[in-house]
Design a protein that fits this description.
By secondary structure, this protein is an all-alpha fold. It is built from 20 helices and four strands.
């Protein structure tokens, strides 16, 4: 998911777009990709873009959420301890972390579309192999490979961002959350039917189908025009813009498309350049904390249901794997029953509950303040989860937590994609996604190991991290709302365009 590069100085906070004009006859009009995107406006192409690229979230959610619904079964099948179950999720995100940087770098050099296609092929292949895993070790290795492939799905978000007019980004990108929600609900629904009947191996095979189907429709989405023009391929960028204008029934700006100044592309050291250092570090902290909280909530939900930790004890009952002594062994061999799946579905629906308010906050309170508020509320609800209540109360708290952590992800995704120049946007998003996975790698050991030893200790840790992220969000040096996407790193002396809003 993506390391953000924000210019650390206050002046920088208002981004710059520097375009070097090509030699053109005197008086001839020129336009940039940004101006073309804004002139063409929103239309049928963007609806198709939203549906296809947004659907990458369905495949990603199914692969990531798969572990939560498969964990009880592999725990039973291979008689796993807590740390072994937690390790499965950790290695998925380890693979995601390593490949996020690599694929982000490759996407900035060779194109977003190619890397997106490669990542889907990779994830689908290793996901299918996982369903034939003969042992726990093979399962862990193959899921790590799946995590590596899924990391490339972030290029779908980048392609959407680079084609959307600025005034629509704050509305359309949060709406993409419905696809993640759909994927989450789909995998839980499938698990409730497939797991008790034909087993978790068939669940994994079924979960790989959406990703395979999506590969077939990628051909309808072109490579990013911003990427093409940033690499000097102006002809391809112009052809793409003309195609979009035709699809939308709009007209292109008058004149010729001008090529940007040549920029060095996808260099990691640019992320830690003194000009960007403060912003980059703050965004990395936020990404890490959001992922830690998000996957902490998901895995804690599964643990609450699997272990019957609800105070007051009308929690959804779990279905024992049998009356033999092994079902009560230290491996906690239990399977989810219908009521547990129902609770998971209800809490998952929370991910869309605050979406309208999140959209309003992003667009009217601006990115930084909106993120600060939702992170602060997340910290509060983690603490409220410790209140002694019924299963209905716990479900309500989990519902609100899922809504808040989802809003956090919406906002930081938009903010990160907007703050990077085209020459480094994919690397920035990929690097942030990598740091984000560090939080996701730690979360299982808090939700599935520490929580068993100290419930309040685990919740206080989650809450504290969220407070740190809220402070970091509030003090970010740049507000990206209303700002045009930058093409490249601005050379000294280039004009600075102030934030229009």
């Amino acid at each position: 998911m993506a390391a953000a590069m924000k210019e650390a100085e206050n002046v920088i906070g208002l981004e710059e777009i520097h375009m070097e004009r090509q030699e053109t006859p005197k008086g001839q009009k020129t336009f940039t990709v940004e101006e073309a995107v804004e002139t063409i406006g929103f239309g049928r192409f963007h609806i198709m873009l939203f549906l296809i690229m947004g659907s990458t979230g369905v495949a990603e959610a199914m692969e990531i959420m798969l572990i939560a619904v498969v964990s009880p079964l592999i725990r039973c099948e291979w008689q796993l301890q807590d740390w072994q179950v937690a390790l499965v999720t950790t290695v998925v995100f380890f693979g995601y972390m390593v490949f996020s940087i690599v694929l982000g770098l490759l996407a900035d050099r060779y194109g977003r579309w190619k890397i997106l296609l490669l990542s889907f092929l990779w994830a689908a292949y290793f996901s299918l192999l996982t369903s034939f895993a003969p042992s726990y070790i093979w399962f862990v290795f193959l899921r790590a490979m799946v995590g590596g492939g899924v990391s490339g799905h972030a290029q779908g978000l980048i392609i959407k961002t680079e084609f959307l007019p600025s005034k629509y980004r704050g509305y359309m990108l949060p709406l993409s959350q419905v696809f993640w929600l759909a994927g989450s609900l789909l995998i839980i629904g499938l698990a409730s039917v497939v797991n008790p009947t034909i087993g978790w191996r068939w669940l994994i095979r079924t979960a790989s189908i959406p990703g395979i189907l999506l590969i077939l429709v990628f051909k309808f989405i072109p490579e990013s025009a911003r990427y093409n023009v940033s690499t000097g391929n102006v002809a391809a960028a112009l052809a793409t813009l003309q195609r979009i204008a035709k699809t939308n029934g709009a007209v292109m700006p008058e004149g010729v498309l001008r090529e940007p100044a040549k920029e060095r592309r996808g260099r990691f050291k640019d992320l830690i350049h003194p000009k960007y250092l403060r912003t980059t570090l703050q965004i990395w902290i936020i990404w890490l904390g959001i992922a830690f909280a998000y996957y902490g909530v998901i895995l804690a939900s599964a643990e609450l249901l699997e272990r019957d930790l609800v105070c007051g004890s009308t929690a959804p009952q779990l279905q024992d794997s049998g009356d033999d002594p092994e079902s009560h062994s230290p491996c906690h061999c239990h399977l989810f029953g219908p009521a547990a799946y129902q609770t998971m579905i209800i809490s998952t629906v929370g991910e869309i509950a605050l979406n309208p308010l999140n959209v309003l906050g992003i667009n009217f309170l601006r990115r930084r303040l909106s993120l600060c508020i939702t992170m602060g509320c997340t910290a509060l609800f983690f603490l409220l989860l410790n209140i002694c209540t019924s299963s209905t109360g716990v479900t309500g708290f989990l519902f609100m937590l899922r809504a808040l952590v989802s809003a956090n992800f919406n906002t930081i995704y938009i903010y990160t994609a907007e703050v990077y120049p085209t020459t480094m946007r994919a690397l920035g998003v990929g690097t942030s996604g990598s740091l984000c996975r560090v939080g996701a790698m730690v979360a299982p050991f808090i939700s599935q190991v520490l929580m068993s030893a100290s419930f309040i200790g685990a919740l206080c840790l989650f809450s504290s991290v969220c407070i740190v992220c809220a402070i970091s969000a509030f003090t970010l040096p740049i507000e990206t709302k209303g700002r045009a996407l930058q093409v490249g790193i601005t050379p000294p002396g280039a004009p600075v365009y102030r934030n229009a809003v």
